User: What shape does this take?
Amino acid sequence: MKRLLYCLAAALLLLPACGEKDTVDLTPTVSCPQDVEFASRVVKGERVAVSIRNISATTEVTVKFGNEETKTQKGPGVVYHAFENIGRKTITVTMVPAEVEKTQFHVMVEDGILPLQRVAQMIVNDPLLCLVMAHRGNSSDWSVPENSAAAIEKCIADKVDIMETDLWTSKDGHLIVSHDENLNRVTGHNQKIGNMTLAQIKQLNLKDRNGNPTTQKVLTFDELLDLCKDRLYINVDIGDRDANIPDVVEAVAKKGMTQQVLIYCNTNAKVLAALKTNPECNAYSPTGSNATYLVEQGNKDYKYFTQCTYPSTSASAVNTAVTAGTILTVNAIYTLNTSLFPAHNFTVDLVNQIYAQYPATRCLHVDTGKEARAALKAAGKHVMNDN
Assistant: This one.
C-alpha cells in the first residue's frame, strides 16, 4: 500500500531573521529536508520535497528522482516526488545556467507507514495539512459493513489516514471491535457482547449499513491490528466502553504498533491509566481540561491530539486544548442513519464552515473519507497520500 505523507517545504523558502536587523540570505540554495532532518528515511509513497531558493526566474532546473521521474521547471520553488520503489535513492539537481553546482541528495525508501509522532510533527510544520479519520471505517458505500475487514480495505483504497473504531470485552475476556454494546443492529442477534463468548460472537455475520446480511465477521482487536499493521492508522475510542485501558495499550504494544494507534480516553483517569501502562502510547482526549491534563502528564517530547464536535463544542474549550499544544481533530459525522449531510454533500462549503469555527482543525472525523479528502483539497487544504 502506497502511503503518501505530505512534507511542507514552503517554510524553507525564507530564512529566519538574525542580528540586530532583519536580513535575508540571498545565496542560491537547494535543500531536501528528508536528507538531513529525518536521517534519510522515507516511506514508500511519502512525498519528498526539494526546495530551490534564490535563483533567477529564468534559470532552468532539472530534478531527477533516481530512475523513477525527472521534473523540470524555471525559477525557484519546491519540486515533489513520491517514490514507488524501496531502496536507496539518489536525487540529482542541475541548473542552466549553473547558479548552484550539481547537487545530490540520498534517501532510503522503506515499506510501511510513518510513526504517528512524525506525522504529528508534519502537521505542526504544515498549517494546511489535514488528516482524514473514517468513523467505524465507514464510507459512502453502504454495502460495506462498519468495523469490518472490508471496511479496512475500503479505507485504504480511499486513502483515508485513520480508521476509528470502538472496543468492548466479551464474556471470556476478548477485546471485540464494535460501536454498539448490543450486536442486534449490526448482526441481528439481540445480545450484549459482555454476555457472549468469542466463539459465540464468531458465529455471527455482520449486516451492511442497509441492513443486508454479509459474509463479514465481527473482528477481535488483535485481528484489526493485524489487518492494519503498516497499512493504516487506528483510532481506538474507549470513551464509555468497557474495554480495559491497560489491556488495550498492552495489546497495541505487543504488536509493535504503539506509533500506529491513537487511544481516545474520555476521562483524566483513563488518560492516566494509559500513560502509566505505556508512557509512549498515543493517548487521546477531548478538548478543554482533559487535553491540558494529557499534555501535563504525558511525554514532554510528544505531540498529542484532542477532539471536539462540530458545531457544538465551545470555542473556549477548543482554544484551551490548542493553547496547551494539542492537535485538533473535529468530529464531523453526518452520514449515519438520518443522513443529515449525505456523502455527496460533504462539500467545500462544509469544510470552510468547519474551519471558520475551528481554524486549528488538523483532522476531520467523518463517515465519508473519500469525499472529505476531495472537499479538503478543493478548499485549498493539504491531504496525505496525495498522488
In short: Residues 61 and 73 are 5 Å apart (CA to CA). The chain has a mean pLDDT of 87. The two ends are 12 Å apart (CA to CA).
